[in-house]
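Researcher: Predict the fold of Colanic acid biosynthesis protein WcaM.
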Amino acid sequence: MRKRFQSTLSFSSSRRKLLKASSVLAAAPFLFPRYALAAAGSSEVNVQTFYRGDWIAAFKQAFSAADTVTVPADLVCDNINTAIFMPAGKTLHVLGGLKGNGKGRFVMQDGCQIVGEKGGRFHNITLDVRGSDCAIKGIDMSGFAPVTQIYIGGKQKRSMRNLVIDQITVHDANYGILRQGFHNRMENVKITNGHFNRLQGDAIEWNVAINDHDLLISDHVIENIDCTNGKINWGIGIGLAGSTYDNEYPEDQAVKNFVVANITGSNCRQLVHVENGKHFIIRNIKAHNINHTFSKKAGIDNATIAIYGCDNFIIDNISMKDSAGFLIGYGVIKGKYLSIPQNFKLNNIELDNTHMQYKSRGIQISSGNATSFVAITNVKMKRATLELHNKPQHLFLRNVDVMQYAYSGPALKLNFDLRNDVRGRFMAKDDTLLSLANVRAVNEKGRSSVDIDRVDHLHVNTSRLNFALPEGVK
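Model: Structure tokens for Colanic acid biosynthesis protein WcaM follow.
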């Protein structure tokens, strides 16, 4: 997938290429000594005490005077239209409101915290994370002026650790959280308990994050993600991407070592998206009304979970209703097929499109490579097709029950014969295994409904199938 930005922050044109921020956003700050304390020692001040007609000056003076700066509940600080650098170790405690025109931002350095409570809110202001041991908690964010509400990036080559983003609400905005990971490294990141609603861009995008390690994205509600502004590749719930596709799957080019879990999503075109990733888990997803009517001009596939060119992953415990299912496919750039998914397991998958008003994707999988496996277990789908293309070395299907209406095609499609297709180069050829057990594929009348073009695997094991394999199977 390629992502294009046009905004006052001047982002360039690729989801998987670095989305360059403007020189203002990328400017490296002067770093204070880590956890340096203000001269007044550990203390808390009200920013209003320092206000003399300029809130930006007031915040700068307040941070110099104390460790914690408070915006009280009855106060709104407006015209925050430039950068405010929080010295290391400082805390911004927000009970009231802060407003800007999209050019304002709080730059968080080592040990900084922004904590909201009792309605603490930001409007058209970006929080710019530039340090280790930072936390953003309990705040409400909105505004379409900035590209993103929380930006994690910068061009400084450094390692940053221990970022916590918890219990935030983002609504009526473009992007929620945007990470640009090409230049630096993030370790031990926890993004939890968020609510994202009425966004044009992604709720969370972790882009070109080839250096990052130990990322947890969990316990979020994502709804009403609909790109109507014509931006290409905007409008995904959670997206993660590495760099250039490579069928050897080198570690230094992939987004890796992450977990996406406990996500409830509705009313969007695509809920979870990973490209050029490895060593990851997606689990406990509940999806409703994921369909093509959202983000119509964004140029992205319609799927609850979309996986492109990935290796070594697990997708487990996914419940979908009235939704497009999975797309697990090739890594493609400009029409060139560069990689194919390999070494993965799908388990405990449910999709019920009985009452869906649109014809939609069920589960569509392309997989392969000389030494690879795919395991698909405990799948139940209604009014949907399970479709597999190409040939991994070892393919296992266990406890699969699919029903598709006859007018929409077969319930199970196995397309192993790509001898005359350019994508056939990804087929495994040696020591191939096809193992099918307790697989049932029927139409709405309960009759067998399959389309299998060719089975030439070296080893074939079957039991409890409601259909026959093609003649000549080895």
